[in-house]
Specification:
By secondary structure, the protein is of the alpha+beta class. The chain contains 15 helices and 13 strands. A four-stranded antiparallel beta sheet has the order 10-8-12-13. It has a three-stranded antiparallel beta sheet with strand order 1-2-3. Helix 3 (about 60-65) packs antiparallel against helix 4.
Amino acid sequence: MTVGEMTVTLEDVAYMLGLRIDGEPVIGVTYTACDSVCVKYLGKSPDSKYTSGGMVKLSWLKESFSECPEDASIEDVERHTRAYLLYLVGSTIFSTTTGNKVPVMYLPLFENFDEAGKYAWGAAALSFLYRALGNASLRSQSTISGCLTLLQCWSYYHLTVGRPNLQHNPTHDCFPFVLKWKGKHIGPTSNRDVIFYRKALDSLKPSDVTWCPYVGTVNPISQTVIPESILNQLILGRSKTMLICFDKAERHLPDRCLRQFGMHQTIPEEVQRWERKTRGVDGGVDLSGKMESELNEWANRRFHIVEAEEDLDEGEYMNWYLRITRRLVGRPIPISSEFQRMTATLRDIAHAADIVSTQGMDDQQIQFVTKIRYLAHEGLRDHVGSSTVAVDNSVNEVEKRSRGKERVRRRGATKRRRKDDPDEYYPPSMHAQSRLYSSVIITDEAQLYHVPSEVDHEHLCIPSNEVNGSEYQPGIEEVDEDQISHGSEENPCEPLATVGVIEQSSLGSSEGVAHQNDFTVTA
């Protein structure tokens, strides 16, 4: 972003979710099947339709354990409690991309409820979210996982972009602080798509950022509502350490967002590289043995607290930041321009393939040129929804194979036009022209430059052996005779070497994208 680096920190997790950010790391044994672990900790196993590898559907937990009998034994109460806790973490802090499953590997952590409260669930939730955000930034990823409530409320606290107006007076007399945003919100939301938010983020000014939302005089927070156990852990919000959630180990780097702690931002140190681990395919693997270095870094978390440096000029940091980062969230080049450039390139390739001479080529070379021509025209059809028809003077083997398909396309392709319909009636003198027009798609109020009136339809060919005739429909419905330019009067029957009818209302050219809304015939 233009204002510098920002991120969700352990301090934000403690304030907004009220979860422990200090304690034992959330790590243990992985599972590739659900039966044995569910029987051990829940007293029953789900049917196969409710499982997927080492994951169980949340719906099975809800159906099987939503109500605990009043006369249930202590063991049954504990089983229902474990099922509820597994459902809770699977639907909130460890939500998957599908949103309806949860790994059963968390169940052993709930075996002893006293011990379960000693885990750093907040640190694990942030590690899970960091990994999810990294995955979501990939081109191949279309979904996101993790605690999105944390991410959304963090944005509400720190940024004006997308921040809703509350219908009630916000109070800080309740904890955790995500409850501030509970209830109905008001404010304009129409026409606010991803493009709107990208532009808003790219236009952020320093005044649009609340670096320290939990302190100050504008929205003072009463420290009395914060549990003492959370207050004692807040120092770890500035710990440069490793966050762990089973195989998901991610670095916590508060030195890159010091302004969120009321400090001056300096140029941070380079991020030390580490190898991201995976659970693997073998069940019953204890990840503690595979992540010794990450666990050691977490164990030393209190020895790596970032401290403030006084009287620093942040101009040096901003110069460094703007030099090494991508400032804008949105596209530097509008997608329409990228689309136009791509289609222009395709058009150039198609044009070059249409005009290349096949004289002297062997069959393999001709087939290669024909394939290039076909792929280029197919790409144009995919991008702009129009057909490109090439007319070749030389009748080679490709044309011969295409004639039969062309006749099939022409057969019944043109509706019988009623003479009393002025918009669709063509006089007899235009019969020859209409035979050519029925083979191409023409839209808008485009101009057409036509070859001589006597053109044998059998010279028309589509450069492909496999063409679906349904893609070629008659397109001339409104043609002004004044917009038709005929061939030379001296030799009206001389055929052109190559005719390419290309719709340019959407294409453009690398040599002149500005020429739009016309049709050209290239020779």
